[in-house]
Amino acid sequence: LNRSRLRTVHDAPAPSRNDEYLLYQTLLGTFSPADGQGEALATYRDRIADYLVKATREAKVHTSWITPNEAYEQALTGFVRAILDDASANPFLEDLRAQAATTARFGALNSLSMTLVKHASPGVPDLYQGTEITDLSLVDPDNRRAVDYAHRSALLAELEALGGASPEAAQRALRAWVAAPEDGRAKLWTAWRCLALRREQPQLFSGSDYTPVDVNGERSRHVIAFARRAGDAGLIAVAGRFFASLALAPEMAPLGAAAWTDATLDLGFLPPGVLLEDVLHPGAQFACDGPLRIADVLSVLPVALLRFRAAAHA
Questions:
Q1: Which residues make beta-bridge pairs with 276?
Q2: Best CA proximity match to 259, nearest among 287, 223, 284
Q3: What does the pLDDT look like over 32-55, one tens digit per residue?
Q4: Per-residue pLDDT at 313
Q5: How far apart are CA 289 and CA 216, in angstroms?
Q6: Which of 8, 69, 81, 205 sits at a 20 to 30 Å CA gap from 255?
Q7: What is the DSSP secondary-structure string of 113-146?
Q8: To the nearest 10°, the Cα dihedral for 208, 210, 211, 216?
Q9: Is the CB of residue 56 less than 8 Å from the CB of residue 19?
Q10: DSSP string, 7-64
C-alpha cells in the first residue's frame, strides 16, 4: 500500500525497511479513534514525524544527532505525512483505523489490570503525570506536552458524584466505561478507588504480607490474583489478562460467565463466612463459603479489589 511513497536516498529506499517497520509498530501502539481525522490527525502526524526523526538519529544507522542526514530525514518525515494523509483516498489509513481500534481497546483493558496491580502490590505506585487516564505518549519530547488537567478534574468530579450514586447507577456507568475503555474513565476510577483505600487503610499496603492466590478452571491463565493482609484485615486483587486470546466477539466486554466460564478463586487461606466487599464495584459483596467464581467477581469490571476482615487466619 505504501511502496509508492518511498524515496531513494543514496541508492537505497528511504525510509529503510527497519525504520518502516518501527513506524508501523509505533502507529499500532499510539493511534486512537480520537486521532482519526481533522486537526487531531494533523497533530498526530507531526508527533509521529518528530518521534521517528529522534528514533532514527539515536539508532545512528542512517542519521544521527551529531551528523544529521537531511535527505534521509526529509524522506522519512515525508513518508510519515503521506501515509497519514486524509486529503484523498488512503487505503492504508483506513486499514490503520480499523486495526488500531482493536489494539487500542485491548490496550485500554490491559491498562486497567496494570493500574490495579500497581496500586495493590507491595511498594508505592508510580503515577506519571497525565497517565491518570489513557495516555499514548511517546518518549520525549512527546511526553512533555502539557497535561490537560481541566479535563482530568472534570472526569474526577464525575466519578466522585458516581461514588455517591446507587449501586445500580454505578454498575450501569462502569459497564459503559468497560465497553469503551479508551476514554480512560474506567482507568481513572480504578486508580481513584485504590488510592482512597490506601489512604483509609495504609496498614494494608505498608508492612503487610503478600500471598499469591490460586485461580482454577478453564480460564485460569487469564486471571492473576494476590492477597495483602495486616492483622485481621486484608484485600484480594483480581485482574484479568490476555484479553485478546479470550476470543470474545468484538462487541463483548470481558465480563461474566461468557468470558470467565468456570474459573474460581481459591480462598482456602480465609476462614469460612468472611465477607468480601469489592472496593471497585459499589454494592458488590461475596461470602467466603468455598471457591469464589470469577464470573461473579468480574461481572461489571475486568478487575476487582476485595476488602475483608477475618477474625483469624488459616
A1: 286
A2: 223
A3: 888 878 899 999 999 999 999 999
A4: 43
A5: 16
A6: 205
A7: HHHHHHHHSSS-----TTTTS-----STTGGGSP
A8: 120
A9: yes
A10: EEETTEEES-HHHHHHHHHHHHHH--GGGSSHHHHHHHHHHHHHHHHHHHHHHTSS--
> What's the Cα-to-Cα distance from 248 to each of 16, 101, 136, 189, 261, rounded to whole Å?
37, 15, 25, 24, 12
- Name 306's Cβ contacts closer than 8 Å, sequence gap at least 6: 235, 236, 237, 238, 276, 277, 278, 279, 286, 297
Could you report the per-residue pLDDT of 206-226, keeping only the tens digit for each?
878 999 999 999 999 999 999
The grid coordinates listed for 171 are 454498575
pLDDT in tens, 224-278: 999 999 988 999 999 999 999 998 988 899 999 999 999 999 999 998 889 999 9
Grid coordinates standing for 298?
468480574
At 212, the amino acid letter reads P
> In degrees rounded to 5, what are phi and psi of residue 164?
-100, 5
Cα separation, 45 vs 82, in Å, equals 9
Q: Could you report the per-residue pLDDT of 77-131, keeping only the tens digit for each?
A: 999 999 999 999 999 999 999 999 889 999 999 999 999 999 999 998 988 889 9
What ranges in the chain are assigned the alpha helix state H? 17-30, 38-59, 70-83, 91-120, 149-163, 167-179, 185-200, 256-260, 294-297
Question: What are 281's three cell numbers?
Answer: 464495584
Handedness of CA 116, 249, 40, 53 (dihedral sign): positive
Cell numbers found for residue 73? 530525514
